[in-house]
Amino acid sequence: MQVNGGCCLSSVGERKEKVEAALVRLRSLKCQISELRAQCEALKKRGSEKQEGLKCSECGKMIEHGLEVTLKDSFGNVKGCYHRDCFAEIWRSQNWTFDYSSPGFLRMDGTDP
Fold first, then answer.
1. Under 8 Å between Cβ of 86 and 59
2. How does 77-101 read in b/e, with b if 16+ C-beta sit within 10 Å?
3. Angle, CA of 41, 45 and 48, to the nearest 5°
4. Is the pTM of the predicted complex or chain greater than 0.85?
5. Domain boundaries in the chain?
6. Could you tell me if 81 and 68 are in contact, meaning their C-beta atoms sit under 8 angstroms apart?
7. CA 106, 109, 111, 113: dihedral to nearest 10 degrees?
8. Could you read off the pLDDT of 48-77 as tens digits, one per residue?
């Protein structure tokens, strides 16, 4: 059985060219991804600097950036924002009891089951 060596060499050469072209495209895409990441980080930074102050749902005063406690529902929608101190007071004021007869298995102390 005789194999034509010229045919295999051209096929290998074509494959090598295709692989090299794919590597060039891959490097180009990696550079583009790096540029996009840098742009995203810059936008995040500018967005956080320009962000309007949040108002505390408990006391109504403005909250400094980074010092807020944000409550969200199970879908990720914001339900309220609080100062850390205001939220801590609310949390401490709640006395919960584990109770199988209550929805969610929790009830506040002092309430009838």
1. yes
2. eeeebbbeebbeeeeeeeeeeeeee
3. 135
4. no
5. 1-51, 54-108
6. yes
7. 40
8. 665 667 888 888 888 887 788 888 888 888
